[in-house]
Amino acid sequence: MVNDGKDLSQDAHAKDLESMGISVVSGSHPLTLLDKIQ
């Protein structure tokens, strides 16, 4: 998973990662990411 506070919706690198099946979360840092911390 990649997370960035910037909007990556038009970022070529983010699109490449998504095409490889990697989750890209951008525009904010959602609190739900904290639920996945072990």
TrEMBL record:
Its EC number is 6.3.2.9. It comes from the Bacteria. Keywords: Ligase. It is an enzyme of class 6 (ligase). This is UDP-N-acetylmuramoylalanine--D-glutamate ligase. One of its GO terms (molecular function) is UDP-N-acetylmuramoylalanine-D-glutamate ligase activity. It comes from Staphylococcus aureus.
